[in-house]
């Protein structure tokens, strides 16, 4: 990767263009005359100062891997929650142990109060249901009660601004110290929490971003505490969780982590069916309408209440779901050996849904099983947890939303089976990025959404063969690019203008670029880089610059031209067959033109009247030398040229494919 120090990429527009001088491509490719009009070529990628600092201090490495001195903060959470489904009221307490591993003292700490998105007057990007947000009842640090302040001064206390809390314990937290916080609160669960959590007719709840949570303090920007506005998603640290969740008897609970007291909350019948599903490749119905009506799903509770206890280690978040009505299906997925005992492992697959609201969900368990199995093999990183649970969320969500080990997905009652598979594969793909590879979703949505869309498209072709879904994805990106409606992939998720900019930059374009990068590097090299990025950054926080450097390490070449053209800028690619000029002595000159700004190697296939097939690859270096056209000499003796085609594989995101052929039409 280029390291030249010029103004940061985010500040560069047309000034990023620089004109290269001279140079000729080897072999059959020849440059036009020296008076040829030069094309702009991309500037090098410039590392932002905070990333340069991390490199200098050994926190990150030049080759894209974590540095020898990489560090991140540690947190553990002890959660207690009680939900009254009739009123949608939740009461909770969280005890947080926050370990400062950073080489700096912290006079204050930041927390997220995400539910304040639903508080009157809180900043938000769209209209939201007002429920009052988080109502704090007590806040303490190291056993000392803290008072709320309008503006935090030098003493102990805390201030709340929208979805953020800044807290001063009254003393600095030194490197190696542990800060103990305890916060009690209550909240009213919104019916629709920005399309990501809530309840459906008070007969099912999906409880997410629901408790006070430490913001990320990392080696890049230090405190990266940004408000939650309802649009851009989350940047979470990894932590350990224990949770005690109380609901009325008859209500089942599934959550991030492992259930610690199944015998206390489930009947023998339910436990027997779960055990059966844990080794089955087929559907096992844990609870249907008959079991729900008969009250044979959960145990009897104390005073009519049950408490489910869960534990989870080294996860980004903790969420849970509960219902007294949903059907509960289960099976298990087979994933490659995780514990080095020489045998494949099993992952429980749970599906909670309502037949009258979501009839397509009768097969959702199968889609989830296939997705976990496919993604575990393709990424080279087997799914690491004991279960994967999907929850149907009619009235809350249309698409899907991911959290560790759980996903909330719409009913898809007016769609087809493949659409439900697609969203299932996508949301479960997020278990790898950002749930394992902990990217910053708010600042760089393409890192998790794009890689997951690519993974989804790969899995589609396994269960739904016959269509190249990467080409379909590429078409969506190209249409927006051709219309001039793109916005940079490197833009913060909250800063996109209305229109297709965010969706294209976060989903279809980066997925297409993964395919393009694979075409450029070759399958083997690309796969080695892809899997190394996942394994090296598992349970850590990578940036785009780590991603770029990792692929350059395996490619053994500088790819700044690729990152600048497609990731930072919105340049489009347009290769075209210019002219075909027959020679009187036989043979011909075929001119290939580069009419776009984004450079990329061009593969050209030429057919002749004698049946010859000539294939030439125009190296990207020729475009980077500033040339706008190439001449390919077809030798005499092979007949006349009958057809010329640029990019016969069809994977290059060319904004005008009509000019990729000769003769036209």
Describe it for me?
This protein has 665 residues and is of the alpha+beta class. The chain contains 13 helices and 32 strands. The strands form seven sheets. It has an eight-stranded mixed β-sheet. A six-stranded mixed β-sheet has the order 18-21-22-23-25-24, sandwiched between helices. Strands 1-30-27-26 form a four-stranded antiparallel β-sheet, with no helix packed on it. A hairpin with a 5-residue loop joins strand 26 and strand 27. Helix 8 crosses helix 9 (501-521) and helix 9 crosses helix 10. The longest helix is centred in the C-terminal third of the chain and has 21 residues, at 501-521. It is globular, with a radius of gyration of 28 Å.
Brief overview:
With 665 residues, this protein is of the alpha+beta class.
Please write out the topology.
Elements: E1 29-30, H1 49-56, E2 74-84, E3 89-99, E4 109-112, E5 135-141, E6 144-145, E7 157-161, E8 164-168, E9 178-188, E10 198-200, E11 204-207, E12 213-214, E13 217-218, E14 222-223, E15 239-248, E16 252-255, E17 258-259, H2 262-265, H3 268-277, E18 284-287, H4 289-294, E19 305-315, E20 320-323, E21 327-335, E22 345-353, H5 364-378, E23 387-392, E24 400-403, E25 406-409, H6 417-429, H7 445-463, H8 469-482, H9 501-521, H10 523-536, H11 544-555, H12 560-568, E26 575-582, E27 588-594, E28 602-608, E29 613-618, H13 620-624, E30 629-634, E31 641-646, E32 661-662
Parallel strand pairs: 2-15, 22-23, 23-25
Antiparallel strand pairs: 1-30, 2-3, 3-9, 4-8, 4-12, 5-6, 5-9, 7-8, 10-11, 11-20, 13-14, 15-19, 16-20, 17-19, 18-21, 21-22, 24-25, 26-27, 27-30, 28-29, 28-31, 31-32
């Amino acid at each position: 990767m280029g390291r030249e120090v010029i103004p940061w990429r985010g500040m560069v527009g047309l000034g990023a263009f620089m004109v290269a001088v001279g140079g000729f491509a080897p072999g059959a490719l020849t440059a036009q005359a020296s008076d040829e009009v030069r094309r702009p070529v991309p500037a090098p990628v410039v590392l932002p100062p905070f990333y340069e600092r991390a490199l200098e201090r050994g926190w990150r490495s030049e080759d894209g891997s974590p540095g020898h001195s990489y560090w991140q903060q540690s947190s553990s959470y002890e959660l207690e929650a009680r939900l009254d489904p009739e009123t949608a009221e939740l009461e909770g307490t969280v005890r947080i142990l926050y370990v400062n591993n950073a080489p700096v003292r912290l006079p204050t700490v930041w927390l997220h109060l995400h539910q304040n998105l639903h508080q009157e007057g809180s900043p938000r990007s769209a209209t939201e249901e007002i429920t009052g947000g988080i109502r704090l009842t007590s806040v303490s640090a190291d056993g000392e009660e803290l008072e709320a302040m309008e503006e935090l001064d030098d003493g102990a206390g805390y201030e709340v601004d929208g979805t953020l809390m800044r807290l001063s314990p009254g003393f600095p937290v030194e490197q190696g110290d542990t800060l103990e916080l305890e916060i009690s609160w209550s909240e009213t669960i919104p019916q629709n929490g920005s399309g990501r959590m809530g309840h459906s007719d008070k007969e099912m709840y999906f409880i997410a971003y629901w408790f006070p949570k430490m913001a990320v303090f990392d080696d890049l920007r230090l405190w990266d505490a940004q408000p939650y506005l309802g649009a851009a998603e989350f940047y979470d640290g990894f932590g350990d969780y224990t949770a005690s969740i109380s609901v009325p008897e008859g209500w089942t609970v599934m959550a991030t982590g492992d259930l610690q007291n199944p015998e206390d909350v489930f009947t023998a019948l339910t436990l027997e069916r779960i055990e059966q599903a844990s080794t089955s490749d087929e559907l096992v119905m844990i609870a249907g309408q008959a079991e729900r009506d008969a009250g044979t799903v959960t145990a009897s509770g104390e005073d009519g209440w049950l408490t489910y206890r869960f534990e989870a280690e080294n996860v980004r978040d903790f969420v849970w779901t509960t219902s007294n009505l949903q059907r509960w299906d289960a099976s298990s997925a087979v994933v490659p050996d995780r514990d080095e005992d020489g045998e494949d492992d099993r992952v429980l697959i749970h599906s909670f849904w309502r037949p009258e609201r979501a009839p397509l969900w009768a097969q959702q368990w199968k889609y989830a099983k296939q997705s976990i199995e496919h993604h575990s093999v393709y990424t080279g990183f087997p799914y690491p947890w004991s279960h994967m649970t999907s929850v149907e969320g009619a009235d809350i969500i249309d698409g899907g939303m991911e959290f560790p080990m759980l996903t909330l997905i719409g009913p898809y009652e007016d769609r087809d089976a493949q659409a439900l598979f697609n969203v299932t594969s996508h949301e479960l793909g997020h278990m790898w990025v950002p749930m394992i590879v902990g990217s910053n979703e708010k600042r760089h949505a393409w890192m998790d959404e794009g890689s997951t869309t690519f993974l989804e498209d790969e899995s589609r072709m396994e269960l739904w063969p016959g269509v190249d879904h990467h080409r379909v994805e590429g078409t969506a990106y190209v249409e927006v690019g051709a219309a001039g409606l793109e916005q940079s992939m490197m833009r913060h998720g909250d800063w996109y203008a209305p229109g297709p900019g965010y969706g294209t930059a976060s989903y279809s374009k980066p997925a297409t670029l993964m395919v393009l990068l694979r075409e450029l590097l070759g399958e083997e090299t690309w796969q080695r880089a892809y899997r190394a990025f996942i394994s090296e950054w598992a349970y850590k926080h990578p940036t785009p610059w780590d991603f770029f450097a990792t692929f350059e390490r395996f490619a053994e070449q500088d790819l700044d031209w690729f990152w600048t053209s497609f990731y930072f800028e919105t340049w489009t690619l347009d290769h075209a067959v210019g002219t075909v000029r027959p020679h009187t002595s036989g043979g011909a000159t075929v001119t290939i033109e580069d009419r776009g700004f984004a450079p990329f190697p061009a593969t050209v296939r030429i057919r002749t009247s004698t049946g010859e097939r000539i294939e030439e690859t125009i190296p990207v270096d020729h475009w980077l030398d500033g040339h706008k056209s190439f001449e390919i000499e077809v030798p005499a003796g092979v007949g006349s040229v009958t057809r010329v085609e640029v990019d016969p594989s069809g994977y290059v995101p060319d904004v005008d494919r009509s000019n990729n052929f000769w003769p036209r039409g």
